[in-house]
Q: What sequence folds into this?
C-alpha cells in the first residue's frame, strides 16, 4: 500500500524595495495568531546578516540567509534551506508548519526566485506558490520605481499590494502611489500595511478581469498586464498548444502568467496556471472553482509584450472566429495535423 503524497505547502513571497517597510510589516504579522504555524525565511543583502535580528519573533521556524539576494548568489542556498526545512518538519525536529513566507532582499528580482520554486523537481512537489505580496512605500514608491528596474518588477508581479507609510504621506503622494499600482499591477488588491491582518494578506488574490493596461516608466521599458478571458472551455490540447507557442514566442518578455483555465475534459475543476519566463509549474486541478465565475481567466505580465498579438494568439485557441484566422479545430482536432498527440503536458 503506497502512502499518500502530502499536500504541498503554500509559499508566499514578501517583496518590496529597500526601505519599503517589509520587516516592519512582517514583525506585526508574526504577532497574528494566524501565523503561529508558519515558517519564515528572511533574506538580506550583505555579508553580515542583520535583518533577521530585527524580526522580533525569532523562533526555530525562522531562517536567515545572509550574503546576497535570493535572485542571484543565494539561489543554491535557498534550495538548501527549503530542503532543510522540509527534512526538519518531516523528522519532527520543528513543528509541522502549515505555510511558508519568504521575505526577499529589497534588491531581489522576483523572477529568478519564482523560477527556482517552479523548476526544482522536489521543491515544486512539496511547495506551492500561493502569492506574491509587494510592499510599496506611499512616499517614495513612484520615484523608486522610476529609478530601479527591480522595484518595477516587484510591483508588477505582485498578487497583492501592501501600501506602507500612509500615516506620513500626503493625500497627493498616496494618490500617486495608487496610480502607480493601478498601472503596474491592475489586478492586485491594495491593502494598507498599517492595518491588514495576516489572513487577508495571505489569502488567494482574486483574478479580476482587466484589459490592456499600458504601463512602464520613461526609459525603463514598458511593463503591461494583459487579461485573457473566455466563456467556452478550452480542450487540453488547445491549452497545451497555446502555452507552447506563448513560451516559444514570448518567454524572454514574459515576467509571469497566472490564472485559472476551464478545460473541456474536466469543466468542473479549474486548471491552475503559474509560469515565469519559460518555466511553468506542473499543471494541477483544484477540487472545485473558488467562486461562481467559471470562465478561463489568465493574466499575463510582461515587458514590451504586444497585447494585440497575445490576445489574437489566445483567441485562436479559445474558439473565437475571425476571417483571417484558422478554425482552432483544424489545428487541434484535425487528424492530419502535425501535432503530436497528448500536448505539452500529457
A:
Amino acid at each position: 500500500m503506497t502512502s499518500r503524497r502530502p499536500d504541498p505547502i503554500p509559499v508566499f513571497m514578501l517583496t518590496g524595495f529597500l526601505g519599503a517597510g517589509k520587516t516592519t510589516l512582517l514583525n506585526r504579522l508574526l504577532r497574528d495568531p494566524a501565523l503561529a504555524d508558519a515558517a519564515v525565511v528572511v533574506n538580506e543583502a550583505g555579508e553580515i546578516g542583520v535583518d533577521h535580528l530585527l524580526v522580533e519573533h525569532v523562533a526555530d521556524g525562522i531562517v536567515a540567509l545572509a550574503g546576497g539576494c535570493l535572485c542571484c548568489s543565494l539561489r543554491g542556498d535557498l534550495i538548501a534551506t527549503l530542503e532543510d526545512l522540509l527534512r526538519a518538519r518531516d523528522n519532527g525536529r520543528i513543528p509541522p508548519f502549515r505555510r511558508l513566507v519568504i521575505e526577499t532582499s529589497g534588491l531581489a528580482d522576483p523572477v529568478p526566485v519564482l523560477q527556482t520554486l517552479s523548476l526544482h523537481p522536489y521543491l515544486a512537489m512539496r511547495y506551492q506558490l500561493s502569492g506574491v505580496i509587494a510592499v510599496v512605500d506611499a512616499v517614495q514608491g513612484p520615484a523608486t520605481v522610476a529609478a530601479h528596474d527591480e522595484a518595477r518588477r516587484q510591483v508588477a508581479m505582485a498578487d497583492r499590494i501592501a501600501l506602507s507609510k500612509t500615516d506620513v504621506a500626503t493625500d497627493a503622494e498616496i494618490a500617486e502611489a495608487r496610480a502607480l499600482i493601478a498601472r503596474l499591477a491592475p489586478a492586485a488588491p491594495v491593502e494598507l500595511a498599517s492595518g491588514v491582518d495576516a489572513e487577508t494578506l495571505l489569502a488567494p488574490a482574486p483574478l479580476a478581469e482587466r484589459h490592456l493596461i499600458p504601463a512602464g516608466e520613461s526609459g525603463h521599458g514598458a511593463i503591461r498586464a494583459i487579461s485573457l478571458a473566455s466563456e467556452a472551455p478550452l480542450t487540453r490540447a488547445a491549452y497545451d498548444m497555446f502555452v507552447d507557442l506563448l513560451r516559444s514566442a514570448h518567454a524572454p518578455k514574459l515576467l509571469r502568467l497566472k490564472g485559472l483555465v476551464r478545460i473541456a475534459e474536466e469543466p468542473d475543476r479549474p486548471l491552475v496556471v503559474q509560469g515565469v519566463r519559460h518555466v511553468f509549474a506542473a499543471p494541477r486541478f483544484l477540487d472545485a472553482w473558488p467562486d461562481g465565475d467559471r470562465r478561463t481567466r489568465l493574466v499575463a505580465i510582461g515587458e514590451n509584450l504586444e497585447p494585440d498579438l497575445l490576445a489574437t494568439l489566445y483567441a485562436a485557441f479559445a474558439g473565437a472566429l475571425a476571417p483571417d484566422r484558422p478554425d482552432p479545430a483544424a489545428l487541434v482536432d484535425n487528424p492530419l495535423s502535425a501535432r503530436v498527440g497528448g500536448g505539452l503536458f500529457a
